[in-house]
Amino acid sequence: MEPAEIFVQAALKSWNIQLKRADAFFDTISDEGLQQEIAPGKNRLIYLMGHLIAVNDSMTSLFGQGERSFEHLDDAFVKNPDRSGLPMPDAASLREDWRKAKSILTANFAALSPADWMSRHTAMTDEDFAKEPSRNKLSVLLNRTNHMAYHIGQMVLVKGKS
Amino acid sequence: MEPAEIFVQAALKSWNIQLKRADAFFDTISDEGLQQEIAPGKNRLIYLMGHLIAVNDSMTSLFGQGERSFEHLDDAFVKNPDRSGLPMPDAASLREDWRKAKSILTANFAALSPADWMSRHTAMTDEDFAKEPSRNKLSVLLNRTNHMAYHIGQMVLVKGKS
């Protein structure tokens, strides 16, 4: 295997570890349980679920792989804090979105070659990219992986909450 | 730049983003503030500081770059939960350890070539590594980066706590 191919594999493995962890977590939480706050006065689980769907989904357009499927979630789950009063889908429909987002991204990622991962994302100009070639699609994936880990660290706090 | 070099640069950038974020966070917290819990009944900030020092430090031996400097923190901060009753260094000395760990790792990482990052870590046998070449030093760095993000997500919850 080529070095670049091995690095891509390592990055995708790291992404998949976090994705499975979030997945397994949401599976253990009931729809009512999603209304729990991660800590007093902080975000509810349902907000973080919508937040992760929308933020992860942004990789579709950033990678030039088509239109986003969940841009309509940005208002309630990204651009505004929890309890903004903006309409949110119910838990069952959000779970369905989570599954769809996961399968779209998995298919998208599988379609990228190491050279594609090395290429710029759509939010970078050619000029900026020439100066900083490490700001490529792979770096977006690494950031999104950290972002998911960051929120998983918060979500697990509801476990064993008295 | 070679593809492998660009990938290493992206992974190190991702690590440095999280490291700076933890750094900036600890700088805003007083020694007394480190006694705060991230959420009621959960880990204290001082525990997470020691935990991150010890877990990050483990990369020194995993990468074959010498003996660990902070293995003595494992008992109180990794192998046992917070409030185990085991002796902990005071906040000032832990902050000093944090700075040292950071500078040791930064120097260690700078000494690794892309080929080094591709090579196996010391907890892998040659046989296992032949089967899974993506379980290399870079994959350890990615996991440690996610681990740090996970705990940063928890630490920031003390901000604006009523």
UniProtKB/TrEMBL annotation, chains A, B:
Superkingdom assignment: Bacteria
Alphabetical list of InterPro entries matching this protein: DinB-like, DinB/YfiT-like
Annotated Pfam families: DinB_2
Sequence ranges assigned to domain DinB-like in this UniProt record: 20-155
Full protein name: DinB-like domain-containing protein
